[in-house]
From TrEMBL:
Compartments, as annotated in UniProt: Cytoplasm; Nucleus
Source lineage: Eukaryota, Fungi, Dikarya, Ascomycota, Pezizomycotina
InterPro entries according to UniProt: Frm2/Hbn1, Nitroreductase, Nitroreductase-like
Name this protein carries in UniProt: Nitroreductase
Organism listed in the record: Mytilinidion resinicola
Domain Nitroreductase intervals: 9-180
Family according to the record: Belongs to the nitroreductase family.
Key word Nucleus present: yes
Pfam families according to UniProt: Nitroreductase
Main location: cytoplasm
Amino acid sequence: MSSAFISAIAARRSIYPLSKKAILSDAKLTTVIQEAVKHAPSSFNMMSSRVVILFGAEHDAYWNDIVPGELKKVVPDEETFAKGVERTKMFGAAAGTVLFFEDGKVIKGMQENVALYADRFPQWSEHGSGMAQIYAWTALELEGYGANLQHYGNLTGPAVTKKYGLPDTYSLKAELVFGHPEGSAKEKPFLPDAERVKTFGSS
């Protein structure tokens, strides 16, 4: 059983050439994401992760309108901006985007209810978000999708929460761009296992 799991997480890689060619219906894909997020662990089971899935025109608008519009406000020169827009067009060519948020209202509630660990809950929230992201990404890979994870939320968060009427306590952490893979992942180097994992004692 563990070998199947390791195979799944090893196959999950960043793939950038993506298209809109159909794999699953929107409804089926939504169920896959729902299940992945539901079963992602979180400290004290606080379940602070929130997800919005953008399909079709909403996905296109995010990468072709919202992200370039926010980039324009902060990028210092036209050449850099043009390069940024070329990159966002690549994401727009994909089928959809999963937006990962953390709900600050939940985090604040945990800080108030478990005051002993109040200073830790923001960090634990980030851990929970990361686990929801990796669960969703791996689940999509197993369904045949290619995907890559992006981080434009520091720029686009306010615009997205306003557009979709989301609570202002939502903080956008990452965007998982997904679609039909039209290329493969780049070669990935690894550090020696012994450099990253050490053991002490024996059973």
